[in-house]
Write the structure tokens for this entry.
Amino acid sequence: MKSPKLARPLATLATLVLTTSGVAASASALFAAPPDVAPPVVTHVCAACHGRDGNSVDPGVPSLAGQGAPYLERQLIAFKTQRRTGVMSGIAVGLSDEGMHAAVGWFAQQMARPNPDPRPDSAALRQGAAIYRHGIDTKNVPACASCHAMNGSGLPPEFPRLAGQHTNYLEAQLRAFRSDSRLSNPNAMMRDISGRLSDQEIDAVAQYIAGLP
């Protein structure tokens, strides 16, 4: 029979082991990959426009597959608080925090597919590639790749994935930044950059980005 002095430390150790195991199990569940079955919010709300796997087929609607979770969450919050406007602002106000987290987690884990948009002519591709990779020194336009990576995968958590987005969507967003009508723009960085680009330069760089894998 154990003495009372020995029993107390053993009981404390057992409690510590059980508590630690519980915390580890909770952490494991929290960071586990999402199930193969899409959350209801994706199936019933998001999929109609963005696709169940986040690969949009509508040229005016962004693909969400493989996008960084922090960026997706910030954009949903911006729509919900009306700092970004459009169709999504009306949809986001009806989403619960749990629904938003579920959608973000799902889309961030999906695999982005190549963009089906038609390829532009070689001259536009060359110009777009030059702007994306090197910027435009004479206009003080930095290389897009400096924030969005050479392959367009983005630099999480701040800078989003651009690779494979639809040309029309990219062109519309660059023009929205330029006109300052897209308000979710930290430090007005994209407004200042796009403000130095002509329509032709916007089209060229958007066409190049849309073809990134």
In short: DSSP finds ten helices and no strands in the chain. The first helix runs from residue 4 to 31. Confidence is low (pLDDT under 50) at residues 1-33. The domain at 40-108 is CATH 1.10.760.10 (Cytochrome Bc1 Complex; Chain D, domain 2).
